[in-house]
Design goal:
It comes from Salinicoccus sesuvii. The chain is an alpha/beta fold. It has ten helices and ten strands. The radius of gyration is 18 Å and the shape is globular.
Length: about 280
């Protein structure tokens, strides 16, 4: 078994979230899903990030069971999808996700997208689940400042995590600063830009300089920026590679060179202007 990575960030409520986790978007349900998660656990990952929309919660649950690890050793995240936003709808969706995963509680539950007019009712459901101890931490995904402010205006419990698209081409400086000021942990989805940044000359140069892969340079940049990260891979060797980022440090000067790659370029939808009807 790989070295278990114990590095964590502390959320606003004191819960510790692993700095790096495995994202399972587009990993097929069934045997592939089970093997991917078991490979990650073997490599030392303790955070698995899924979502109702991914359709693979059952496979994650089977892998958790097959791993034989005590439940408290793992940090499991899932998300409520757009069709299930609303108070009762969210409570029902949570119970379904929990059943699919075969768990008694979740470590982190997120609202997947800020669907206008619906997410505040879902947040009321999140607070209920949190206060009942069914989830250790609650948060959001793809929320910008105006969405968070709408939550702040009505909430009893503030979001603890905001999961955003985040990579060197979309460095989210303003949102990073805002979340930090609000004591909300920023978490990166698509941190590797689906490989789109690997051929950047600066990334290539730094990979050579630090004797690391382009992916490791980018993930280390996340971590040094205080961002938790959930790279997705179904390849066992890449899964191992992605977590092997804790034995080196990128210099401040080189961090700034990576920062300079920012071009506000997305591969996903913009939370300020998005539709799922396309």
């Amino acid at each position: 078994m790989g070295t278990i990575n114990r590095e964590t960030y502390k959320l606003g409520n004191g819960v510790e979230i692993p700095i790096i986790g495995l994202g399972v978007y587009r990993v097929e349900e069934g045997d592939q899903m089970k093997q991917v998660v078991l490979s990650a656990i073997e490599a030392g990952y303790r955070h698995i990030d899924t979502a109702a929309f991914y359709g693979n919660e059952k496979g994650v649950g089977e892998a958790i069971k097959a791993s034989g690890l005590p439940r408290e050793e793992l940090f499991i995240t899932t998300k409520v999808w757009n069709d299930d936003l609303g108070f009762e709808e969210t409570l029902n969706a949570f119970n379904k996700s929990l059943w699919n995963l075969g768990l008694d509680y979740l470590d982190l539950y997120l609202i997947h997208w800020p669907i206008e007019g619906k997410y505040t009712e879902s947040w009321r459901a999140f607070e209920k689940l949190y206060e009942e101890g069914k989830v250790k931490a609650i948060g959001v995904s793809n929320f910008h400042q105006q969405h968070l402010e709408e939550i702040f205006a009505m909430c009893r419990v503030k979001p603890m995590v905001n999961q955003l698209e985040y990579h060197p081409y979309l460095a989210q400086r303003e949102m990073r600063a805002y979340c930090e000021a609000q004591d909300i942990q920023l978490e990166a989805w698509a941190p590797l830009n689906r490989g789109g940044v690997f051929k950047e000359p600066i990334i290539q140069e730094l990979a050579g300089k630090y004797d690391k892969t382009p992916a490791q340079i980018i993930l280390r940049w996340d971590v040094q920026n205080g961002v938790s990260t959930i790279p997705k891979s179904a390849t066992p060797s890449r899964i191992v590679e992605n977590i092997d980022i804790f034995d080196f440090k990128i210099s401040d000067e080189d961090m700034k060179r990576i920062d300079a790659l920012d071009r506000n370029q997305r591969i996903g939808k913009n939370p300020d202007n998005f539709s799922f009807d396309e």
